[in-house]
Specification:
Elements lengths: L3 E6 L3 H12 L4 E7 L2 H11 L3 E4 L8 H11 L4 E6 L4 H10 L3 E4 L4 H12 L12 H11 L4 H8 L3 H15 L4 H10 L7
Parallel strand pairs: 1-2, 1-3, 3-4, 4-5
Helix pairs in contact: 2-3, 3-4, 6-8, 6-9, 7-8
Amino acid sequence: MDQIKILIADDHTIFCQAMQRLLDTVRRYRVVGIARNGAEAIQKAQQLQPHLVLMDIQMPGTDGIKSTRLLRQLVPNTQVIILTMHDNEKLLQEAMEAGAVGYVLKDIEISELLNTISKVVHPEHIYGTDKLTCREKEVLFLVASGFTNQEIALRLIVSMHTIKNHLSHIFTKLNCANRAEAVRWAVEQNMLLKS
């Protein structure tokens, strides 16, 4: 299998270097470049034609969401995962509408990040409830049943942060841009018939 070429777009040098070292340990991944801002990310994506860009939201000049929108127009075969510290559902929706296929928080486990990358570069792995964990199915069922994030957190005895992480993973795995799309998907899959 050919190597997956990855471009990292983030204005924090230490983060970029650490991410490059991490990804370079995975045989099938190769970091082909690092961009310090949105304009540079677009320029390097056009030049290097990576399979994937890991894009920070807050960068000097053009932010990550605007950069994602433009990049997807200019380099349509390149996928974008937003990698950010901002646990914000509005930003998640904006990122997906801009063309990102994933929205990942920087404080997740390394294994989760690699799993998300794998799902993005192998789209056939994104769809299907068999790709959701038992807890993700439970969260999606509760969302589809009309519960708010706070109500789900109380019901499952976890933090709001944990629920938002679960939703981020669900949206990525099901290729959904927001809660409404995830709920529609759950209804189509008859998930509300769960006893």
